């Protein structure tokens, strides 16, 4: 058992397949969810997968600078992604609450006022 | 042998957990249950950060994502509760389009990722002091510093906070205050 597991140590490809599968699931949710909050949750899945990817590329692909000072661009980018996600959820929640007060629904298939 | 077997086991465990919970986030009919599943996915991602030797990011993930964003989403669910508690299944057309786009994206990225470019890469050396190095990078004004984006993000968070309050407050308060002037 231990020998088998040690033989399948995840490489960069395995990690990337996991994160792209998570991203694809989020994409599916964004296109099929009817509740606007559900769409936002699916978007969070995508953002989270992308944020993991930043750290991943940092750990596997980042050039190690001279003098032993490693670059941490991926980790910094992940922090920015998380901050932007927080800002986006705040504004999204405010929009949904205002929308609900106005139209009594957050069903994205029924929010078609721009078509009229 | 055992030292490399345990992280592998944890990786596949976390992968299985996050994929299962992610699927229940996008297909679950109860939206509140989907929010709880999302919390699980984000927690599993914190575990993935730990596996990638980034304990600081794992902490940020738990604090901001699990503790902040999911709680906000739960509030959004509760404040916009519609009369039909269960969400309908998506129509056949939306299911077909959604799965076609998602599968297409996954296959496209799969074929790019199994190329030789990524296969040969191995883990690079660990940064010596994770948190201190991130802090220095965030406040560095030099060539590879992130001082300007850092300040822009702080402005963005301020704008989001004010914007959230302005959008979500009762519209009557604004109307009443404007009536005497008009």
CATH topology name of chain A: Helix Hairpins
- CATH homology group of the largest domain in chain B: NADH-ubiquinone/plastoquinone oxidoreductase chain 6, subunit NuoJ
How many structural domains can be distinguished in the coordinates of chain A?
Answer: 1
CATH topology of the largest domain in chain B: Four Helix Bundle (Hemerythrin (Met), subunit A)
Class by SSE composition of chain B = mainly alpha
Low-confidence stretches of chain A: none
CATH architecture descriptor name of the largest domain in chain B: Up-down Bundle
The gross shape of chain B turns out to be globular
Write the H/E string of chain B, N to C: HHHHHHHH
Total beta strand runs of chain A: 0
Concise structural overview:
The complex is a heterodimer of chains A (116) and B (182). Chain A is mainly alpha-helical and 116 residues long.
What does this 3D model show about the protein?
The complex is a heterodimer of chains A (116) and B (182). Chain A has 4 helices and no strands. Chain A is an all-alpha fold. Chain A has a single domain (11-108), classed as Helix Hairpins (Orthogonal Bundle). In chain A, helix 3 (36-61) runs antiparallel to helix 4 (73-103). The mean pLDDT of chain A is 85. Chain B has 2 domains: 1-84, Four Helix Bundle (Hemerythrin (Met), subunit A) (Up-down Bundle), CATH 1.20.120.1200; 129-182, no CATH class. Chain B contains 8 helices and no strands. In chain B, helix 1 (2-27) packs antiparallel against helix 2 and helix 2 runs antiparallel to helix 3 (55-79). Chain B is globular and about 55 Å long. The model of chain B has no long low-confidence stretch (mean pLDDT 84). Classes of the chains: A mainly alpha (116), B mainly alpha (182). At the A-B interface, helix 1, helix 2, helix 3 and helix 4 of A face helix 1, helix 2, helix 3, helix 4 and helix 6 of B.
């Amino acid at each position: 058992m231990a020998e088998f597991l040690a033989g399948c140590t995840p490489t960069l490809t395995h990690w990337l397949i996991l994160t792209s599968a998570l991203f694809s699931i989020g994409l599916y949710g964004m296109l099929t969810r009817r509740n606007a909050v559900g769409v936002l949750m699916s978007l969070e899945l995508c953002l989270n997968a992308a944020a993991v990817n930043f750290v991943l590329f940092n750990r596997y692909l980042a050039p190690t600078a001279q003098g032993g000072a490693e670059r941490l661009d991926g980790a910094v980018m992940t922090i920015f992604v998380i901050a932007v996600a927080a800002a986006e959820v705040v504004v999204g929640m405010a929009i949904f609450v205002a929308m609900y007060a106005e139209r009594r629904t957050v069903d994205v298939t029924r929010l078609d006022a721009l078509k009229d | 042998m055992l030292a490399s077997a345990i992280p592998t086991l944890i990786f596949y465990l976390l992968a299985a957990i996050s994929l299962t919970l992610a699927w229940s986030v996008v297909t679950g009919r109860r939206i509140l249950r989907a929010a709880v599943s999302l919390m699980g996915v984000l927690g599993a991602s914190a575990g993935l950060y730990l596996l990638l030797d980034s304990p600081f990011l794992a902490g940020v993930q738990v604090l901001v994502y699990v503790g902040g964003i999911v709680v906000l989403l739960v509030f959004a669910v509760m404040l916009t509760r519609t009369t039909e508690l269960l969400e309908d299944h998506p129509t056949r057309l939306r299911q077909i389009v959604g799965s076609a786009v998602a599968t297409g994206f996954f296959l496209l990225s799969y074929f790019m990722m199994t190329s030789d470019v990524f296969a040969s890469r191995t883990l690079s050396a660990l940064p010596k002091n994770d948190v201190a190095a991130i802090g220095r990078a965030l406040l560095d004004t030099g060539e590879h510093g992130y001082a300007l984006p850092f300040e822009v993000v702080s402005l963005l968070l301020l704008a989001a906070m004010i914007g959230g309050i302005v959008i979500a407050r009762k519209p009557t308060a604004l109307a009443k205050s404007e009536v005497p002037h008009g």
